[in-house]
Design a protein that fits this description.
The complex is a heterotrimer of chains A (390), B (345) and C (162). Chain A contains 16 helices and 8 strands. In chain A, strand 2 and strand 3 form a beta hairpin. By secondary structure, chain A is α+β, with helices and mostly antiparallel strands. In chain C, the strands form 2 sheets. In chain C, strands 2-3-5 form a 3-stranded antiparallel beta sheet. In chain C, strands 1-4 form a two-stranded antiparallel sheet. Chain C has helices spanning 5-19, 54-58, 103-107, 133-138, and strands at 41-44, 64-73, 83-94, 113-116, 130-131. Classes of the chains: A alpha+beta (390), B mainly alpha (345), C alpha+beta (162). Chains in contact: A-B, A-C, B-C. Chains A and C meet through helix 3, helix 6, helix 7 and helix 8 of A and helix 1 and helix 3 of C.
């Protein structure tokens, strides 16, 4: 009898400990709202437990991990080529962007530099991934706010970019194109013309989004002044990407640390906004999509000729050492810290994903907002669950 | 429908039966037509896609298939729910919709019941649906549907006022509450002495028309006022516990009400069953009237649904602020100006 | 309410889109063909395979099943030694596991595996998604030729052995 009751006691204590962070049993007033793992408002399986007082949020906490796939452990038992195939799927909307920091870190350890043509094409595909990712965000945030049509425009115009990525790499979503020392293959004939046409379409899409959403008074009423992140708070939580640029911080890794890719060879601008509210985040991302189309156009004009792959051995054994490379991914700053012991497989990879830090600000941000504004704020922070949970 | 149309002399119970049948058939048919044209097809075209194409030619049978699907579902309701209130709520909402069909005229003699206080009676019976929604939210024994129902009730009651006030402007200009009288006033009226196209009130009462349209959008809980229904964070509001035939009633009621309100807007502002510029005798208009009304209803519905598919939604407090601080003063100003101009001209 | 144009412009966008032709491709009746490099299905040229097992080893999902045996082929010239050769008994790819990464195609040293953009091979039973040697050989007919490269490229266009 004693053993059972002891076990029961332990189970009860464990449940209390799990719930104690949410303080369910202590407070009498207020209602606990559980936006569960399956929810139309969260981009995937994110669970937010919020305590409400009427319409206002007293405290909110994101509980993640429902999509944890064990990436960092998997990379310990996969060769570098196989890891490249896997990490496409971390941020599945802008998948080429996930491969680049990993490959660059491995190249740093091997002391190999990809030829200029490869770096150039890497940048083009990186920006295409950014366009594909952020244009979906533009439609999706409008959808969260109730407008049903802009989401369809986003999917429709994104198709052109995805078709371009497929023509070059073979896969619409998971490109699997970056290799240590360069790229897998060169661009097919006619690709440059088609990509230029898609860029024109994306620019039209940006104009459509400005007309239908950005200038819409209802949208402005829903997003201006909502979810304001001051610059210091954002930086202290480790926000990155458009989230921190919308709070006025002028920080873009493409300009500050181009790690060999071709961003310093073209003329472009970093967009910031002083307000730091949900409207600012939408605005900054819209401008970034347009800026990316200009970057791609310039890169397509100035494509150097040359080999696509440096001289690397057939069986790749990366020398022992540690390397960290981070890039300005569509979601924020993504980085890989590879520890290698000279074998076919990495010894340990640490993946720094942008959305994990972007979501960590939610408890601070959601205090005192109204319930409909939870949706606005989550939509404007823009995280992808695969990126949070890996 | 008066027996004069058919040329027969029918007893009272026969005419009443015909009226009841026509209203009962018209409501679901109207819902189907609006649902197919706007929800399935126009919405799809606005979103650059085709909509249902496989079920029937061009997807015409899709809604009928949906109806069959809803009817054959299991009838479930929450354990602690108040069964009687739960079951009656959709019926109350549907009933208020069907009652509107009785009062809207589609021809000089084609009206269910020509009452003297036509428009007042119509607006009054259309507000009964608020009680149905509150019943639905309460009987669902669900915190979130209660919140949704309370929000819906607050919104619907708040937007009743601008709707009624917008109509007052029309009534002042027409001089009568009777719907047929309002149509006649538009048919026989003149704009500053020119009687070419009569005097459809949309020209002089355009402010009233806009306020009426916005209020109708809110009454139907369509975006941008659909916070009670499309609550993506608190499920489906008061409809969440309903499934099968009861949900079908809510759905039908929403579209049938849209049709009916578009009909009211057509009568009040666009001239109802009367065609501007032509002068037909009463019996021809009895046959042409329904067609004309249908066209006008489609135009008004297009406006309603066009706005629905384009805009994001308001937050609750912004919605209420909009009604109380913007629409009502505007409507009152409209009434004042109309009254002054009516006396002067 | 001073900036009404924002609301009106939005309405204009949806109205214009309603009148434009839509982009839907009604799938079973009309079909789009994917890019030649699209990763649809893997095709096997059996004559080139030497059962080196590199593809089966490198596959991250272990979805390739290979069995082979050694046999002695007759000598090339009179009086020579019989040569030891590998023969392919079984080469199955399980498409219910395959993640279409392309590592097998890339590491094959003997040009025996090729990508084909064919994608309409779904089956009602999962077990039928195991494509055997014959079926993989059949996919070779759908493999397109390698495309020309863009100007400025120094890569050579490979040929598909037919």
């Amino acid at each position: 009898m004693t053993a059972i009751s002891e076990r029961r006691q332990l189970a009860y204590m464990a449940a209390q400990a799990a719930d104690s962070r949410v303080n369910v049993e202590l407070e009498t007033g207020g209602m606990t709202l559980n936006m569960g793992p399956q929810h139309p408002a969260t981009h995937g399986t994110l669970r937010i437990v919020a305590r409400l007082d009427g319409e206002q949020v007293l405290s909110a906490e994101p509980l993640m991990g429902y999509m944890h796939r064990g990436y960092e452990k998997l990379t310990e038992v996969r060769t570098y080529l196989q890891v490249t195939a896997l990490i496409n799927r971390i941020d599945w909307l802008g998948s080429f962007a996930n491969e680049v920091p990993f490959i660059l870190a491995a190249e740093k350890l091997m002391e190999v530099e990809a030829p200029p043509r490869a770096q150039h094409i890497r940048t083009i595909l990186f920006e295409l991934a950014r366009i594909a990712n952020i244009s979906l965000f533009l439609g999706d945030m409008a959808l969260q706010l109730g407008a049903q049509t802009p989401a369809f425009y986003a999917f429709r115009d994104r198709e052109y970019v995805l078709n371009n990525i497929e023509a070059a790499t073979g896969g619409r979503f998971h490109s699997m194109f970056d290799r240590i020392g360069g790229l897998k293959d060169d661009l097919p004939k006619g690709w440059i013309e088609e990509t230029r046409r898609s860029m024109v379409k994306i620019r039209e899409f940006c104009v459509i989004m400005e007309d239908i959403i950005l200038g819409n008074e209802i949208f402005e009423a829903r997003t201006r002044g909502i979810g304001v992140i001051p610059a210091e708070v954002g930086l202290s939580y480790g926000l990155s990407g458009a989230n921190i640029r919308a709070s006025g911080v002028d920080w873009d890794l493409r300009r500050d640390n181009p790690v060999g890719l071709a961003w310093d060879k073209v003329d472009w601008k970093v967009w910031t906004h002083p307000d730091g509210d949900a409207f600012a985040r939408f605005w900054v991302r819209l401008q970034e999509v347009r800026e990316s189309t200009f970057i791609v156009d310039q890169l397509l004009d100035s494509l150097p000729s040359g080999p696509i792959m440096a001289k690397v051995p057939r069986i790749i054994k990366v020398p022992a050492g540690e390397a960290w490379v981070s890039t300005e991914n569509p979601l924020g700053e993504m980085g890989y810290y590879i520890v290698s012991d000279g074998d076919l497989m990495p010894f340990r990879t640490k993946i720094r994903s942008a959305s994990f830090n972007n979501v960590s600000i939610t408890p601070w941000l959601l205090k005192g907002v109204f319930v409909p504004d939870i949706i606005t704020i989550l939509a404007s922070l823009y995280f992808i669950l695969g990126d949070i949970d890996r | 429908m008066s027996g004069l149309v058919l040329g027969l002399d029918l007893a009272y119970w026969q005419t009443t039966l015909i009226k009841v049948l026509v209203a009962a058939i018209m409501a679901p048919t109207a819902a189907l037509i609006l649902g197919y044209v706007f929800l399935l097809k126009i919405m799809s075209f606005m979103q650059s896609r085709l909509g249902p194409m496989e079920s029937g030619p061009y997807g015409l049978l899709q809604l009928i298939g949906d109806g069959v699907k809803f009817i054959q579902k299991e009838d479930i309701f929450p354990e602690k729910a108040d069964k009687w209130v739960f079951a009656t709520a959709p019926i109350v909402v549907l009933m208020s919709t069907l009652l509107i069909y009785v009062f809207v005229p589609v021809g000089p003699d084609l009206v269910g019941e020509p009452v003297e206080t036509g428009i007042f009676m119509t607006l009054a019976v259309s507000s009964i649906s608020v009680i149905g929604i509150l019943m639905a939210g309460w009987a669902s024994v669900n915190k979130y549907s209660l919140i949704g129902a309370l929000r819906a009730a607050g919104q619907l009651i708040a937007y009743e006022l601008p709707m009624v006030l917008a109509v007052v402007g029309v009534v002042i200009q027409a001089g009568t509450l009777n719907m047929q009288g309002i149509v006649a006033a538009q048919a026989n009226g003149e704009i500053f002495g020119w009687g070419g196209i009569g005097n459809p009130f949309i020209i002089t009462q355009f402010v009233g028309f806009l306020i009426f349209l916005v209020a109708v959008q809110a009454e139907l809980t369509q975006t941008p006022f659909d916070m009670p229904v499309a609550e993506s964070e608190i499920m489906g509001g008061y409809q969440v516990e309903y499934s099968g035939f009861r949900f079908l009633s809510f759905f039908l009621a929403e579209f049938a009400t849209a049709f009916a309100f578009a009909g009211i807007a057509a009568v009040l502002f666009l001239g109802g069953w009367w065609i501007p510029g032509f002068d037909f005798d009463s019996n021809t208009l009895n046959y042409l009237g329904p067609i004309v009304m249908f066209v006008k209803i489609m135009v008004v519905s297009f406006l309603v649904f066009w706005i629905r598919f384009t805009y994001p939604r308001f937050r609750e407090d912004q919605l209420q602020t909009f009604a109380w601080k913007v629409l009502i003063p505007l409507a009152l100003a409209n009434i004042a100006v109309t009254g002054v101009l009516k006396v002067v001209f | 309410m001073a900036q009404l144009p924002g609301l009106i412009k939005g309405l204009g966008v949806t109205f214009r889109t309603m009148l434009e032709p839509n982009v839907t491709v009604q799938y079973p009746h009309e079909k789009e063909s994917p890019a030649p490099r699209a990763r649809g299905v893997i095709a096997l040229k059996e004559e080139n395979c030497t059962v080196c097992m590199l593809c089966a080893r490198e596959c991250p999902d272990w979805c390739i099943y290979i069995e082979g045996h050694k046999y002695l082929a007759p000598p090339r010239r009179e009086g020579g030694k019989p040569r030891q050769r590998n023969a392919l008994d079984r080469f199955d790819i399980d498409y219910s596991l395959c993640m279409y990464c392309g590592i097998c195609v890339e590491v094959c040293p003997f040009e025996a595996l090729f990508w084909s953009p064919e994608f309409e091979y779904s089956e009602p039973r999962i077990a039928d998604l195991l494509h055997d040697k014959t079926m993989l050989g059949h996919w070779m007919t759908t493999v397109p030729d390698f495309e020309q490269y863009e100007a400025g490229s120094e890569a050579k266009v490979k040929k598909v052995p037919r």
